[in-house]
Design brief:
The protein has 178 residues and is mainly beta. The chain has helices spanning 4-19, 28-32; strands at 47-52, 56-58, 63-67, 71-73, 85-95, 101-102, 107-112, 115-116, 136-137, 142-151, 157-163, 170-177. The strands form 3 sheets. A 5-stranded mixed β-sheet has the order 1-12-11-7-8, with no helix packed on it. Strands 2, 3, 4, 5 and 10 form a 5-stranded antiparallel β-sheet that branches. Strands 6-9 form a two-stranded antiparallel ribbon. Strand 2 and strand 3 (63-67) form a beta hairpin. The longest helix has 16 residues, at 4-19. The radius of gyration is 23 Å and the shape is globular. The protein starts with a helix and ends with a strand.
Amino acid sequence: MHTPRHALIVCALLALGACGAAPQTDGVAARFGGDAAVPQGVAATPKRTEVKFGSAYRFSEGVTVSVSSPRSFRPSDAAYPHSERAVAFEIMVRNESHQPYRLSGLSATATVDGVQAKQVLDAVQGFSGIVDAGKDVLPGRDVRFSMAFAMPTDLTQLKLALRTSPSSGDIAQYCGRA
C-alpha cells in the first residue's frame, strides 16, 4: 500500500534526477505553433559576422572594434613562442555605450585553415598583448593596442575572431589572406 509520504519521496527523487538533465526542447515549437524560447540557463549560439580586415564592427552592447589589415613580420629572437613568421594587427576598441567597458572581457583568437594560431608576444617589437586589460574604457573613449599571431611561412587564409565578453551574443570574424 502506497502512502502520500511515499508519493512525495518518489516525486522528490524524480525532480532531483531531472536537475542534471539537459532541457528537452524538440517539438516544442511545433506543439505550440511558434518559435520555442531558449530555456533559461542555456546559452544561445553567438552570431558570427564576417568582416574584412581594415573594417570596423559594432557589437550589440555598443562597443566598436576596428582591426587593421594583417602586417607580416619576422619575430625577434626574444619572441614567444618562436616562429619564423607572424602577422600583426592594430586593434582599436571604442566604447559607444553609456557604461564603462572592461577591456579584459575582449577575446581574440586567430585560426589558420581551421587550426588555432598562437599569439606571439614580442616586447622587442611592441607586441605585448592587451597591456591595459584591467582598465575600463569609458563611454566615448577608445583604446588602441597591437596583437600578433604565429603564421606558416606561406600566405594562407586567416580568421581573427573577436568577442567583447564570454556572454556576448556577437562574434566579429575578420577574414582574409595573410
